[in-house]
Write the structure tokens for this entry.
Amino acid sequence: MSNDLEIAAAASAGGFVSSVRPGHVPAPGTACANCATPLQGPWCHSCGQSAEDFHRSIVKLAAEVVEGLLHADGRLWRTLPDLMFRPGRLTRAYLEGHRAPQIPPLRLFLVVLLALFVVGGLTSGGKFGKVTSTTTTEANGKVVTTAAATHSFSELTPAEKAAVQARLGQVHVTIGGSKPNVAASNWLEERLRKTLDDPERFHLILEQWSERFAFLMLPVSALLLSLLFVFQRRFFLFDHTIFSLHSLSAMGVVITLGLLLTPVVDDWAFLLLLPAPVHLFVHMRGVYRTSVAGALVRMALLFLGSSVAASLLVVGLLAVGLNGMVG
């Protein structure tokens, strides 16, 4: 994974632990390590820096973080049940100012996104499908080559790899006309060849960029909601962003659970996604106070817009991944 998401999520996870350990705070009157102001408590009243001394083993630090997550800060366990089963109440509470009892939405989203990619990386094994091609001749004499993915690229024999390489010469890209675009066809063919030669590098590039592309679903969702509620002046972009953070976080939790269960129950794990429309309906009704018909119509439009945006993001991700294979 990219360092950007790891750093952001690690900083966010650190925010779960809001208390300072008494046993690691200097005595009152000790000079602040940052500005030399005499300390009067666990925080410097002049510069705001924590007075806690972090010079202890990594084992103790990790244990304290886990303890903080499980005990010292109960916001995690108060937020997750509401996020999954009472999303409307969770978002309304935040928008109305009751924010201290719950995890900040952006922090929650970043940590869920990090967990999703960590679990996804562990369960996928980082392998791509093996490509096998078949060629058929249609009635009009046109030769059509199709490809199918079955196993890992790494399992291709030299003969199979040579056969796929030969088929790549038949790749043609048509842009705005009936004739193939030579430049685009050459661009795609060159990068497909390099991807076939080094699929692990392609996987690594996709992994690094997928987190950033996934994050783009947040502004897309917020902007779509702004359009859907453009005539309701009581809602602002901030409200739509908080709604999107909570909605996407809930979806991320479900997908993460599905990935964790996949090794046990195979694809049946993704039956967990079936209640997703119900969750969105309850969430939208609870936050925006819309009618049943209004919520259903907006859900349909939101699904359509999100599907188009997600498709474009996937195409963009693949383009970035292929482009990164050269250079």
